[in-house]
Structures are given as structure tokens and as C-alpha cells.
Amino acid sequence: ASAQIGVTGLAVMGRNLARNFARHGYTVALHNRTAARTRALVEEFGDEGSFVPTETAEDFVAALEKPRRLMIMVKAGDATDAVIDEFAPLLESGDMIIDGGNAHFLDTRRREKALRERGIHFVGSGVSGGEEGALHGPAVMPGGSAESYAVLGPMLEAISAKVDGEPCCTHIGTDGAGHFVKMVHNGIEYADMQLIAEAYDLLRHVAGYTPAQIADVFRVWNKGRLNSYLIEITAEILAHTDAGTDKPFVDIVRDAAEQKGTGRWTVQTALDLGSPVTAIAQATFARVASSRTALREAYRPLAGGTEHPLRPHEAERYVATVEHALYASKVIAYDQGWTMIRDAAEEYGWDIDLGNVAAIWRGGCIIRAAFLDRIRAAYNTDATLPSLLSEPEFADEITKAQVPWREVIAAATRRGIPVPAFSSALAYYDTLRAERLPAALIQGQRDFFGAHTYRRTDREGTFHTLWAEPGQPEVEA
Ligand code: NBP
């Protein structure tokens, strides 16, 4: 037994993580259901470090130093259970299984509990950054026991991305906390992508800019407070010309957005937790709606007219307006994500450091951005911050953004340009700041048709109005 870590599941992600461990000086045992993948890895990359290729489960487990550390990188779902069922009987108390796949956090909780009863540490770990991240440094979000992190932490930190010398890896919390936080990361990613896409759409169809001109706008934005990986790649995509047709690349791609489902999980889970992640939900629904081609075809003849693009001098001013709207909406979307993490921590008893979550997302992952430093600082200053909007600097920025934010959404609406993420973010902000919400009327309706009761503003207690009786008297319920 010579390997400090073993990786089973050697498709793109597993192969690159195994190479990353080896490049950091660890001896890595390799295993894959189809042995050809194991052989191919050693043939192609064997000289990058120390690998122990194995073909049977028994040989794989025998190759691992104790306590054994075995990482699963297979297709999330049934395959993960199949692999656990195959390996767990070969392990001993104190050994560790790390699942780096995109598992649902509730599956991770179930697996962790079952393996804990057998003395095995199960560490569901979010791994972000795709295949490039896996090789060069992902953001790593491990859950599981603190005891397992004491052993695994240094290894996972070693292979993770680094920002200012700090590893993008931290123990998120127990059992499924890591996979939960990874799920929310992906939900925020959906929102961020949709917001950027809406900003593009407005610059294209309100300002009348070409994709190449918009690429330049994004390059400028990338030097400011919006600086992020997603803004950077957006500029590159918009500047790209399709070689075959000489058209802007963005014009030759079908406008039906696909998804693998982590955004959907975030929204489903948010409904269960009562977390109002409206921007993430709208971004997820926007992808779904864009893909309903038949519905869109059926409605297209109903489309109304739109106004002409802005004149050049107006367009120039408009760019700054859109920047405000994008930034303010982004703050809201991220704030909603953090609210959801806090809600889950309370529900599942996880001790999650909200500032650390921002810190480890600064590198390796898709939503890496300068802005995360600010979120980290906000939570480090006040770990109980109820919302980013209550942090003075963010509050000030949002106040300044308000007028342009509203202008952008109003103009989009007048022209019939959909901005579901921008407008849901603003609606959420207006919900939070409203003195009174019409929720009071909804409570009245609920009481009227279902005797669901209500609470009063002026007295404690629960009340019901006898709506059908003469004089409609109120009774204490
Ligand atoms: P895939 O998700 O395509 O899975 C392929 C791997 O699963 C192969 O090694 C395959 O073995 C193995 N496998 C399957 Br399928 N069924 C199995 C079974 N019943 N028993 C044993 N092995 C089985 O690979 P991937 O794209 O490298 O992703 C790996 C994990 O990482 C997934 O959970 C995925 O969601 C996640 N992921 C994360 C990111 C990210 O950015 N974080 C990106 C991509 C993927 P075979 O070779 O014998 O068919």
C-alpha cells in the first residue's frame, strides 16, 4: 500500500483530478469500471507523477495507505451508489470515501449517515471549475466530518485553486453541506449568466450596438466592479466571428439554453426551505422558456412593435445605465444565494462560515470575481449580517443604482425586451424595502375562503373574521 489517495472514475473530471494530485507529489491509485481508461491515463500522463494503476476493486483498495482515502468521480446518481456498494465492504473503520461528483445534497446526507454507521467517513465534496479546474486547481467544497477534514484538508487544499496564496478549499460543514453549497454556487452561476445575457440583449437592441461593440463594453466593465470570469469570457464570445459564415458567433447559435439540472435543484430546494431566490428561479425558468421552441413559434405572430434604437449619444449614456442595473441585480442574486445557504445551515445544523464561502469562490470556479472579496469582507466584519443590502457600502451602491436600474427595466418593458432576472431582482429589492406589502390582502383572502386566520398589526393573537355572518364579526382563533 503506497498511494495516499485513490481515484475511481477516470472520465474527464476524475482523470484531471488524479493528475492534479500526482502533480502535487501524491501517489495516486487509479481505478475505472472500464480498465481501458486507466491504461490510457498512465500511457498518456504517467510521467507527470506517481500513479498506481489497478483493475480490480480489491487491488485498488489494497494500493491505498491507511486510513484509506478513496475519491469517487463517476456519473452522479445510481453509479455513485453502485460504486459505494462495491467498495464499502472492502474498507475499514476510519477509511474515507470522497464523492467529488455533482451529487444532490440529500443523497449525500443519506450516504453519509449509512457509511457513518459502518465507521466510514463519507465526504461529499463540491468540485467546481470543469475539467480545466480539475487539472489546474478547482474550488473545492468538502462536507463530512471535521475529523476527516483534518486528514483530507491539506490534500484538497493542495490541489485547489489559489488566490493571493490562499487555497480555494475549506471545510464547509458536516454531511451534505459541501454539495449543498456547490448546488447554490451553480444556481448563482445561472443567475449571473442570465443577467449578463440580459445586459447584452439591451445593449444590442436598445443601444443598437453590434456584438463586437458590446464585447468592447464588456472589456471595459471587466476592469471595474463587475470584474469576473463570466464577464471576461462573455467579451471573448461576443468578439468571436463564425469562420464558415463570417457572422458574429452569437448570431449563428440557436437561442435555446440547455441545463444539466443543478439550477433546477437550487430552485426546488429553495422552495422547500422558503428561500426567496427569485433571480436564480427566473434565470432557470428563462432557460426553460427559451427552449420551448414550439410555444415561442405559436406566440411570435402576436408580437408587438418595438421602438427604434437609441441615437449614438444616448446609447453612450445608456451603457453606464445598464452597468448599474447589471451590478445591482447581481448583488441581489448573490445575496439571495447567501440567504439560502444561511437558511439551510439553520435547517440542517451546519456551521457554515459565510465569509469563507465567498473566499473559496474567488478562484477555480465559474463565478470567480473580484466582487467576492467584498462579500467576504462584509461577512468577516459581521457574521450575522442579515443581508448584503444591510452592509453600508453595498447599500450605498444599490441606492445610487436605483434610478438607472428602474430606467433600464422600464425601457426594456416598453420595447418588449424580456428582462426576467433584472426585473425579478428589482422586485425583490422593492419587496424588502416596502413599508407595507399587499401580503396583508392575501391573508384576508385566505381567511375569507379558507378560514386560514390572520394576525393583527395592533394586537398579539390569531384571528378569524366570520365573513358570512351579519356584521362580519372577528373572533380570536
Ligand atoms: P461522467 O459523469 O461522464 O461519468 C463517467 C464516469 O462514470 C466513467 O468513469 C464511467 O465509467 C463511470 N461510471 C458510470 Br457512467 N456508471 C458507472 C457504474 N455503474 N459503476 C462504475 N462507474 C460508472 O464523468 P465526468 O464528466 O468526468 O464527471 C464526473 C463527475 O463529476 C460527475 O458526477 C459530474 O456531475 C461531475 N462533474 C463536475 C464538473 C464540475 O465542473 N464540477 C464538470 C463535469 C462533471 P466507464 O468509463 O466504465 O464508463
How would you summarize what this structure contains?
The chain is an alpha/beta fold and 477 residues long. The protein has helices at residues 12-23, 35-45, 57-62, 78-87, 105-116, 130-136, 146-159, 177-205, 211-221, 229-239, 249-252, 262-273, 278-290, 293-299, 312-348, 354-360, 371-381, 392-415, 420-433, 439-450, and strands at 5-8, 27-31, 50-53, 69-72, 96-99, 121-128, 139-142, 162-163, 166-167, 463-465, 474-476.
Just name the CATH architecture of the largest domain.
Orthogonal Bundle
Bound molecules: nicotinamide 8-bromo-adenine dinucleotide phosphate
Side by side, the strands of the main sheet go 3-2-1-4-5-6-7
Rg result: 26 Å
CATH superfamily of the largest domain: N-(1-d-carboxylethyl)-l-norvaline Dehydrogenase, domain 2
Query: Major β-sheet, in short?
Result: 7 strands, mixed
Characterise this structure.
The chain has helices at 12-23, 35-45, 57-62, 78-87, 105-116, 130-136, 146-159, 177-205, 211-221, 229-239, 249-252, 262-273, 278-290, 293-299, 312-348, 354-360, 371-381, 392-415, 420-433, 439-450; strands spanning 5-8, 27-31, 50-53, 69-72, 96-99, 121-128, 139-142, 162-163, 166-167, 463-465, 474-476. By secondary structure, the protein is of the alpha/beta class. The strands form 3 sheets. It has a 7-stranded mixed sheet, sandwiched between helices. A two-stranded antiparallel sheet has the order 8-9. Helix 8 (177-205) crosses helix 12 (262-273). The N and C termini lie far apart (69 Å). Residues 9-14, 32-34, 37, 73-76, 79, 82-83, 101-102, 127-130 line the site of nicotinamide 8-bromo-adenine dinucleotide phosphate.
